[in-house]
Design a protein that fits this description.
Low-confidence stretches: none
Number of strands: 9
Strand order of the largest sheet: 1-4-3-2-5-6
Helix content: 25-40%
Strand content: 15-25%
Bound molecules: adenosine monophosphate
Structural class: alpha/beta
Mean pLDDT: 96
Distance between the termini: 61 Å
Order of helices and strands: EHEHEHEHHHEHEHHEEE
Amino acid sequence: MKIVRSKAELRDALAEPRREGKRIGLVPTMGYFHEGHLSLMRRAREDCDVVVVSLFVNPTQFGPGEDLDSYPRDEDRDAELAALEGVDLLWTPDAEQMYPEGFATAVEVANDLTGVLEGDPAHRGPSHFRGVTTVVAKLFNSVQPDVAYFGRKDAQQAVVIERMTRDLDFPVQIEVLPTVREEDGLALSSRNAYLDAEQREQAAAISRALRAAERAASEGETSTSALVQATRDELRNAGIEPEYVEARSAEDLSPIAELNGRPVLVAVAARVGRARLIDNVVIAPPTTKKTEA
Ligand code: AMP
């Protein structure tokens, strides 16, 4: 595996495979790899001739007072893990490479998708997704991948990136892969490193709460506010006061009152200790309406 730091090195390393028409896969990450990241790399390895992983803790998607400075980092370990997955190129630009003096441009997907859930001003705010879409657009332009891989764990991010890709005609196929979880259900996240043993146990309630919503839906509940309530109840039992629990269309994040056979995203953000954790489940029950014979 080659580690490249500059865009020039990246371009050089990709010139030949591109000329030869090789299929290039990109896995964008902020590092501190866990099985969630590795699952994306593994899938890219299966699908593509050349696998590029970018590792960049993108400052523009962190708000003031968020954990940019303390975000966990271990590049040596990340490089070892990526190499074990058969990654060809680990691209680790620094902030000066990505945002040189005078950088003045942003890519922004409209408010309907970026001003809700994580992008709600009461939560991370729309500048979060402006940071995400701007950096992902830059990664797409620098790597020019055929396919890019993202995790469902960040469901809203995936919807926003799919929309940006479509709207701006990026010639990239977007693959969104399932959330990888610990045995007790906790979604893997680099931020889980902030949890002490007690908080780690408490954090498991987040996925338990989402399973409660799933269970209620499978038992025939169709009101999304009841699903949200089932999630909140389970969180409260564990002493977690969520930042939000919301049910929205998994396709366009519009509010949905009743399950109607379209996929519904139930999303949670909650602080446990100093970790701000997000998780979600997509509920897509079959329509229960029966047509008369
Ligand atoms: P991050 O380094 O946290 O920005 O994540 C990089 C990519 O890994 C994103 O596309 C995430 O959605 C994905 N990812 C993070 N955690 C998980 C997980 N537990 N399961 C699957 N994908 C994940």
